[in-house]
Write a structure and sequence with these properties.
- This protein has two helices and five strands.
- With 105 residues, the chain is of the alpha+beta class.
- It has a domain of 65 residues: SH3 type barrels (Roll).
- It has a five-stranded antiparallel beta sheet with strand order 4-3-2-1-5, covered by helices on one side.
- A hairpin with a 2-residue loop joins strand 3 and strand 4.
- The protein starts with 16 loop residues before the first helix and ends with a strand.
């Protein structure tokens, strides 16, 4: 006997609209990540590299957390707002509190 499984297709006729909506929501949030907590030593390393990059006008690679995702951007830091704790790089505003890693190039 040759049996082919059709996955969710065979069950959708018996599902309520609410079930389909919830399954769709679960699928959308499947890749969500929790924000990691950095210890004081990692924060100090990021801070010293940030100061070095600003003084020497160096290229940086920043890994940061935004919208439940890990994102990466690279370039020269254009502006830093100490009051709001935000930097501007490549037209993107990133909160310093969301930094996960900062590398100098």
């Amino acid at each position: 006997m040759n049996f082919k499984d059709r996955g969710n297709k065979k069950w959708t006729a018996m599902m309520l609209i609410e079930h389909r909506k919830r399954l769709k929501e679960l699928k959308e949030h499947e890749d969500d990540r929790l924000k990691p907590i950095l210890d004081d030593q990692e924060k100090a390393i990021i801070n010293s590299r940030l100061q070095q990059a600003l003084q020497s006008n160096l290229n940086v690679v920043i890994k940061y957390y935004e919208d439940k995702r890990f994102k990466t951007t690279a370039g020269i830091i254009n502006k830093i707002d100490i009051n709001k704790k935000v930097i501007c790089i490549n037209g993107i505003k990133i909160s310093i509190e969301n930094f996960l890693e900062l590398k100098l190039e």
